[in-house]
C-alpha cells in the first residue's frame, strides 16, 4: 500500500516530534502550560484566604501580586512544567508581619492544571528581614486563567 505525500509528511513530523520531545501541537500548548495571567485565591495554613493575581511567562518567570495600590505586595520567581498537565512554581516576596515588621515569604508550589484552571499545594516559608527562618506552613492556591497572552514582563 502506497502512502500519500501528506501521510508521509505527517509520519515524519510525528517521528521528529517524538525524538525531539515536542509531541504536543503548538495549538494545544496554550491549554497545557500555565502561560498567561490568572485570578486566584491563596491560603496559608489557617489564615484567611487572600486574592492574588498570578502570571506565568513563557520564559519561565513567575509573578504573584496580593492586594492593590499602596498595599500591594509582589513576588517574583520561576515556574517549570513537570509533565503535560502539571507544573511547579516558586516565588519570593516581601511583606509585613502583623506587627508591621518586614518579612520575606518564599512559596513553593506543585500545581495540577486542567485547561484554564489550576490548583496547587506546597509550603510557604517565612524569614525575618535578616534572613532568620521564622517558620513554614502548608499553603495552597486555586486559580482561573483570565488571559493566555504571554506576560513577558510580569512585574
Question: How would you sum up this structure, described in words?
Answer:
This protein is 15% helix and 54% strand. The protein has 155 residues and is mainly beta. The chain has 2 domains: 1-29; 33-147, Quinohemoprotein amine dehydrogenase alpha subunit, domain 2 (Lipocalin). The chain starts with a helix and ends in an 8-residue tail after the last strand.
What's the layout of helices and strands?
Blueprint lengths: L4 H16 L5 H7 L3 E9 L5 E7 L4 E6 L6 E11 L2 E11 L5 E13 L2 E12 L4 E15 L8
Antiparallel strand pairs: 1-2, 1-8, 2-3, 3-4, 4-5, 5-6, 6-7, 7-8
Roughly how many Å apart are the termini? 57 Å
Strand order of the largest sheet: 1-2-3-4-5-6-7-8
The total count of strands amounts to 8
CATH architecture label name of the largest domain: Beta Barrel
Relative strand content: over 45%
Biased composition (Polar residues): 139-149
Keywords: Signal
Region (Disordered): 129-155
Signal peptide: 1-28
